[in-house]
Design a protein that fits this description.
Chain lengths: 478, 242, 421
């Protein structure tokens, strides 16, 4: 054990005396810390702005004057998604998905105004986040530090001197690995700080720890790759070139190729295209604004029978409201059917992409990281679903008001009779039926569950590389 | 119990490197307190022979023993009992002499105290003012001296030296040979690889001549005298076995 | 050293350099993958548009069949607008992954519709596709760095450096020649699939020539940088690390900093504010005296002033008038939104001169009509078409013309090139 420590200490001394390693480490740290601060500030501002917008949207809804309830159905309501605490570290999908949504009767709108749309376009890497710095650039620093670990000693023949002192190749590997893993732990300090800050903003400690663990695993995989190739290579330049090529393949090529793959093998039709089929389906359900639509004949007959009356005017409820509620419910079922189908396809596509994590640790890490930060597809879709639930709830609440508080006679005449129109207005007090909307990220257990398949891929990478490195070191060559 | 007096034994050593048989069955032994010189031209298999005692190479046949124990059975034990001086003194360029010594002694598991370290550096005559400079600024001879100091400090019974005098100036070579003799007189066993016929004859008790992976001759020093340089030189230059 | 003899000699040497051949083959392969993927994506988008045009017409006819007045016909008919990919879009898909390039709009307030995004799976959009522009901007420099960084250092390491210089008598020429040959081979491997892609896609001559020319300049920049740094240093590891550092600086840190500064300097109105303003205006109109709405409407459309009186609680012309007024209310915000986005984009265009990868990507996207400007042109098209729709229906609604299904044949048709000068 003391040998391992001694070797590790010596490796550190070498790094500290190497201008290259030092300047790379400083560059990385500056990049990371700046990105972390900027992202944190940006997310905090967004969080504040969206909370503010949400409160404003709710208060304006409640402040609406007395009016016909169906007007409020069309008046609609806005919901905003507030970023999760760990989004300051990994904003994940938040930058490409819309963060606000308009809710109204008879349709499901999409989430609009992604942050990315309005930004200056300077290439894909201009969207630096702390997570991206860790995923893309930390491996470069690890390669720079680790590639020479063994091959450097081999090139200068100090490896022979070392082994001649009676230590085994595996001990040398352990020593170098200890040094590199200590460096990795040090590199994780900014993440620890980010995690701590997230805990301060209401994140669970477990989620922060899981996040650190995922990145430790990811960076360790790169550390092991560097050590493995360092043990095998005859020349330092070869080790560095090979590792650089691997970095290019695993972090730049494979992820974007995997995206093309997922899009090709599991294509999803656009919303407009499925919308065409859906609109035709919806028309068959009848127009809820028109009580005379033949689609509601049966509803009307049943109602008349239920209350034992002859005409709709005699009904104790407003047929228009009943029809509106009935058709909204059938329409929503249909809309949800399409939405669910689409979401399931998106999930399948995302899962296919995540499965490429067995080939590229970056994909697995990005997937797990988003899952733990609650900025993944699951949370996005849950936001859509919860917004839809809220929409359905207040629209149906208004429709029930429409059915119970308004007289049918007034309701049919309100387009032409000013007095009837006045009588169809209900008190603004009723708008209180709108529920508060605060989007909460998944609980940490669910998030861990979502991250698990990708974490498993990382664990297998880690195990395979560990075994390979130890075996290679056991048969170390001079 | 002759074998008890033997430190190093090579028995029909065969080694294949890169598909080529570089050692074709070599047998010799080095006794306690003996200085043995392995002499040969480029590619004769001298360094390869050394490396087999350190367990750096897989044997295709035969045995290498250190202190009567098979190297292949316990590599670490063999290495622990041997101090090895590689051909180009291979220490850290970015460390100074003291730091190098402390580090490699640490790896060997023998924490050298400052006093013995200074004594060893004195013994190899490394100028005191140079001891705190990084090895990157050293001449080849000075680096070699640090490496030798390390070998001395290891305080092992056996020293394996690979071309220890190549690149040294004549004075340094003389100093080095004196040092090797005093080490042998202290009871250390020295196996030394070289292509310097004169140097080998000056310092060795016995010389083995290697050619093309085979031991083609052995020369012993007469009691109290030195090996006959002329005879060795003739054998070294000729094409036949001795 | 005259004539082509040295070129052939060095080329002969390179042919036997297995690592170098490996990099060239990899480059060719990746270029093919990016081009094929791009062409597949573009043809998928074209097919989608073709299907949508068909489906859009059928849907409109079906929706219209039940309607008995102009207002209802306008309310229930959606119209497809789209931005077809250019014949060079395969090389740079650009903003088409994130910005919408198809809408179905109707005669309601446009501000409420134009920001709808028929976006794909966000998980895919986040990572981005492997198109030629990405490959050329970010991957190709790394290939060049890999093949050029140890040009001299490897010879030094092998002790051949002095020998080579002594033999050739000139200290730099074999390296320079070798560097240009290597860079040239990488360029050809990258550009060849692009040119084939251009021919297959029927790209215009200008575009087909401009793209490789820009690429050539870009690679010359990287070759020059690699060559200069490789000359100055002895240690190949230091050279490689330095070049990677340059790559990170101009490809990542520079653009990120530029984006940050530009976004900070040019604030963009919150998109949500546009929607809210428009929505509030439209909804408030229900409760306002009708004259308020109609006055605001007539101010913009004086030609309908004689029909501006609204007598009943609900009339379609009033309904569409307040939709229009809603757009008018949101107009300053919407204009500012568009203006500042274009402003940001212009600044990014200037800034990109400091960050060559971004410059290359932006240039290719410009050629491919897949940049923000092209997207804004599409948006302008949609606005123009929406205006024409309004013109058509206003002409029926205000004079209270009798409903006539045949007259609907005179509806404006969307033409993707309509706003082009």
């Amino acid at each position: 054990m003391s040998h391992v420590l001694l070797l590790a200490k010596e490796e550190w001394r070498f790094w500290l005396r190497s201008n290259l390693a030092l300047s790379a480490a400083i560059l990385f740290l500056v990049l990371l810390v700046t990105t972390a601060i900027l992202t944190t500030v940006r997310i905090a501002e967004e969080r504040h702005a969206r909370e503010h917008h949400q409160e404003k949207a709710e208060s304006t809804f409640l402040a609406q004057p007395d009016r016909h309830p169906h007007r409020m159905v069309h008046y609609g309501h806005y919901v905003f998604r507030t970023p999760s605490p760990l989004a300051a570290f990994d904003p994940g999908l938040d930058s490409v998905t819309g963060q606000s949504m308009f809710l109204e009767g008879h349709q499901q709108n999409s989430a609009t105004f992604a942050v990315s749309g309005a930004s200056a376009d300077l290439g894909e890497f201009a969207w630096l986040t702390p997570a991206v710095v860790y995923q893309l650039f930390a491996p470069l620093l690890i390669i720079l530090l680790g590639h020479g670990a063994v091959v450097r000693e081999r090139e200068s023949s100090t490896l022979a001197t070392m082994l001649a002192q009676g230590i085994s190749g595996v001990t040398v590997l352990y020593g170098k690995a200890l040094a590199l893993f200590a460096a990795i732990l040090l590199m994780l300090v900014p993440l620890l700080v980010s995690g701590g800050a997230a805990v301060g903003r209401g994140e669970t400690v477990l989620a922060a720890i899981l996040m650190v663990a995922v990145y430790f695993l990811y960076l360790s995989i790169w550390g092991l790759l560097a050590l493995f190739l360092s043990v095998l290579s005859a020349r330092r330049a070869t080790a560095l070139a090979t590792l650089t090529a691997l970095w290019l393949a695993l972090t730049l090529l494979l992820p974007s190729l995997a995206v093309s793959n997922a899009a090709r093998f599991l294509p999803i039709a656009g919303q407009i295209e499925t919308g065409l089929v859906m609109l035709s389906d919806l028309r068959k359900l009848g127009d809820g604004h028109n009580v005379n639509d033949p689609a509601f004949d049966r509803l009307r007959r049943d109602l008349l029978k239920q209350y034992g009356v002859e005409t709709v005017e005699e009904l104790p409820v407003n047929l228009r409201g009943v029809v509106a509620e009935y058709s909204e419910s059938r329409l929503t079922d249909k809309l949800n059917e399409y939405a669910d189908r689409r979401m399931a396809m998106e999930q399948k596509q995302a899962a296919l992409l995540a499965r490429h994590g067995w080939l590229s640790p970056l994909l697995a890490t990005a997937d797990a990281s988003r899952a733990i930060a609650a900025t993944d597809l699951n949370n996005h879709q849950r936001f859509l679903k919860e917004a839809e639930a809220l929409r359905f709830d207040f629209v149906q609440g208004l429709n029930r008001l429409h059915a119970s508080k308004l007289a049918y006679i007034d309701d049919i005449k309100r387009s032409s009779d000013q007095q009837a129109e006045k009588r169809t207005r209900v008190s603004g007090e009723n708008w209180k039926l709108l529920k508060d909307f605060r989007f909460k990220p998944d609980d940490v257990g669910t998030r861990a569950g979502n991250a698990w398949p990708s974490v498993l891929a990382l664990l297998v990478w880690f195990a395979v590389l560990s075994i390979a490195s130890v075996r290679a070191a056991g048969r170390i060559r001079l | 119990m002759l074998s008890n007096r033997l430190r190093l034994q090579a028995e029909e050593l065969r080694v294949i490197r890169g598909g080529k048989e570089v050692l074709k069955g070599i047998t010799f032994a080095v006794a306690i307190g003996e200085v043995y010189g392995l002499l040969g031209g480029n590619g004769a298999g001298k360094s390869t022979t050394l490396l087999t005692f350190l367990g750096f190479l897989d044997l295709a046949g035969g045995n290498a023993r250190v202190n009567d124990a098979l190297v292949s059975e316990d590599v670490v034990a063999a290495r622990r009992s041997i101090a090895y001086l590689p051909e180009s003194a291979s220490l850290y360029e970015h460390l100074n002499a003291r730091e190098n010594l402390r580090y490699f002694l640490g790896l060997a598991g023998s924490a050298g105290d400052d006093e013995s370290m200074e004594a060893a550096l004195d013994r190899v005559a490394l100028p005191a003012e140079a001891r705190d400079r990084r090895l990157a600024d050293y001449s080849k001879g000075m680096r070699q001296k640090v490496a030798i100091a390390l070998a001395i400090l290891r305080n092992t019974d056996t020293l394996l030296l690979d071309e220890p005098t190549s690149g040294l100036d004549p004075t340094a070579i003389d100093e080095f040979h004196d040092l090797v003799r005093t080490l042998a007189d202290d009871g250390k066993t020295v196996l030394m690889v070289t292509h310097d016929v004169y140097g080998a004859c000056q310092v060795a008790d016995r010389i083995g001549l290697l050619r093309d992976g085979r031991l083609v001759g052995e020369f012993s020093a007469p009691a109290g005298g030195r090996i006959d340089t002329e005879a060795v030189h003739r054998a070294f230059s000729s094409r036949e076995a001795v | 050293m005259s004539g082509f003899a040295p070129v052939f000699r060095e080329a002969g040497l390179l042919k036997r350099d297995r690592a170098f051949i490996g990099w060239v083959v990899l480059t060719l392969l990746l270029s093919v993958v990016s081009v094929v993927g791009g062409i597949a994506e573009v043809s998928k988008q074209r097919e989608t548009i073709a299907r949508l045009i068909e489906g859009d017409r059928e849907d409109r006819l079906e929706a219209r069949a039940k309607q008995g007045d102009w207002g209802g016909a306008a309310y229930y008919s959606f119209h497809l607008t789209y931005d077809p990919p250019s014949n060079f879009a395969f090389a740079a898909l650009g903003t088409r992954d994130q910005e919408p390039w198809k809408h179905r709009i109707r005669m309601l307030a446009l501000e409420g519709q134009i920001y709808e995004r028929d976006a794909g799976n966000p998980v895919l959009a986040l990572t981005g596709r492997f198109d030629f522009a990405f490959f050329a901007a970010f991957v190709l420099p790394l290939v060049l760095i890999a093949v050029l960084h140890d040009l001299q250092a490897s010879e030094r390491g092998a002790g051949r450096h002095e020998l080579l210089i002594a033999t050739s008598g000139i200290s730099s020429s074999p390296w320079r020649l070798r560097a240009w040959l290597k860079a040239g081979a990488v360029f050809i491997a990258a550009a060849l699939p692009l040119l084939v892609g251009c021919i297959v896609s029927g790209t215009s001559m200008t575009r087909s020539l401009m793209a490789p020319a820009i690429l050539c300049g870009y690679l010359a920049f990287w070759s020059f940088v690699s060559y200069r740094i490789a000359r100055r240093e002895r240690n190949p590891s230091v050279i490689l690390a330095t070049l990677l550092g340059v790559w990170v600086m101009v490809g990542v840190v520079g653009p990120a900093a530029g984006k940050l500064v530009i976004d900070h300097q040019v604030p963009v109105p919150q998109g949500a504010d546009i929607l809210m303003t428009q929505r509030e205006a439209v909804n408030d109109a229900w409760d306002l005296p009708k004259e308020v709405t109609m006055d605001a409407f007539v101010a913009r459309h004086p030609e309908w002033s004689q029909y501006a009186a609204v007598d009943r609680p609900f009339e379609w012309k009033w309904y569409y008038a307040f939709q229009q007024v809603g757009d008018q209310k949101a107009e300053p915000l919407s204009l500012a939104y568009r203006e500042s986005r274009l402003h940001r984009d212009r600044l990014a265009g200037w800034f990109a001169w400091l960050t060559p990868p971004a410059l290359l990507q932006r240039s290719l996207q410009r050629i491919a009509d897949t940049d923000l400007r092209a997207h804004m042109e599409y948006e302008a098209n949609v606005r123009l078409f929406h205006g024409q729709l309004r013109e058509f229906y206003y002409g029926k609604l205000f004079p209270d013309a009798p409903f006539d299904t045949d007259a609907l044949g005179g509806l404006p048709e969307f033409d993707p090139g309509m706003a082009a000068p």
